[in-house]
Amino acid sequence: MLRKDINQLLTQTGPGTPMGEMFRQYWIPALLAEELPENDSPPVRVKLLSERLIAFRDSEGRYGLVDEFCAHRGASLWFGRNEGSGLRCPYHGWKYDVTGQCVEVPSEADNSSFCENVKLTAYPLVKVGDILWTHMGDPARRPDLPEFEFAHVPPEQTYTSKRWQQCNWLQAFEGGIDSSHVTFLHSGGLKSDPLFKGAKGNEYNLNDTKPFFEVVESEGGLFVGARRNAEEGNYYWRITPWVMPAFTMVPPRGDHPVHGHFWVPIDDENCWTYSFDYHPVRPLTTAERQAMMDGYGIHSKNIPGTYRPVANMDNDYLIDREAQKRGETYSGVAGIAMQDASLQESMGPIVDRSKERLVPADSGIIKARQRLRKAAIALRDEGVTPPGVDTAHHRVRSAAVVLPAAESFLDSCRDAVKATPGVRHASI
């Protein structure tokens, strides 16, 4: 179990909180590039780390992320007119550029300098891959742009989606480093999901319900190794990298694409789950890309025009008890993504970790909490830059391999867990 004060430290991410300030040291996903598809497209509401913001793309194609509310009388700029290289409040015509600077107040005299003293809070917004990333911390400590492999392969080799998840970021993230639940919750998907089925590793997953965990600290976070029995004298290892604060990669299966997530707090009771698939050495096939768009693999089928899953809390995730009885799904909920989200959301907005009873299979979660707490306190008390800010920490991969029983997973897989351009991922 976890003390309530530590749970609060880890789950609260608003301005001025230790974890919120830690998240502000990183470039984090703000929205998908598809949400601002062209110059002067409609502005988009963005809530991150409990801050209400507006994203827009101006007439020159520059991206802006600014305070949602006009500095005049607090009207929402979501209603604004995106025109003439700025976002104009429709209430009284005040206009702002992508830096948040007020550039026009129509009621003021032509020679007035009033605008010069009006500026909204604003954060940089930069496209890397399919995502628009922002850094909400001190500009003097702004790191280099993200170098995660999925965001740098050619566009035909990658796909990214996002979904709204109705729970705190931590309980969603903890599911991403929990390899033991796959044998149960996702057992149906290992047999039928087009982005999972057919891999030899699935047999090991399904046949061994008692994985042994070895957790190793990395420069940027952790490597979580889950060991299962394979053929005599060998073990099947699934290696999950975590890069702080909230980037994880799922160990791959066969020649299916590699996949993973980035969990971003909206506020303390909601988060965005960004999910990506990519292949390091080949384009995604038409069938693979369509499956991702249809909500297979780690992706969700969303309500058109939104990023809310079709299967959600309000409709009990379209649970099918007959499919559960037939063994098609273990929980009755269809789809890998919503199987995870349904149970994570069922815990409540912020789970009370003082009541939990952890076991050795939770060792990755325990270690991650310790690293998060230690890093947040070190930043707060001593100004120490947390792990994962350095872009060298981003160049990791997940792996799924069979090794002789006497071999250490990390010693044997040091090259496999490095992102090496042009080299296929290690997977069976």
From TrEMBL:
One family name in Pfam for this protein: LigXa_C
Gene Ontology terms, MF aspect: 2 iron, 2 sulfur cluster binding; metal ion binding; monooxygenase activity; oxidoreductase activity, acting on paired donors, with incorporation or reduction of molecular oxygen
PROSITE patterns (UniProt xref): RIESKE
Gene3D superfamilies per UniProt: Naphthalene 1,2-dioxygenase Alpha Subunit, Chain A, domain 1, Rieske [2Fe-2S] iron-sulphur domain
Source superkingdom: Bacteria
Domain Rieske: 27-134
Keyword entries, A-Z: 2Fe-2S, Iron, Iron-sulfur, Metal-binding, Oxidoreductase
InterPro entries: Cholesterol_7-desaturase, LigXa_C, Rieske_2Fe-2S, Rieske_2Fe-2S_sf
Signal peptide per UniProt: none
PANTHER family assigned: BLR4922 PROTEIN, IRON-SULFUR DOMAIN CONTAINING PROTEIN
UniProt protein name: (2Fe-2S)-binding protein
Source species: Nonomuraea aridisoli
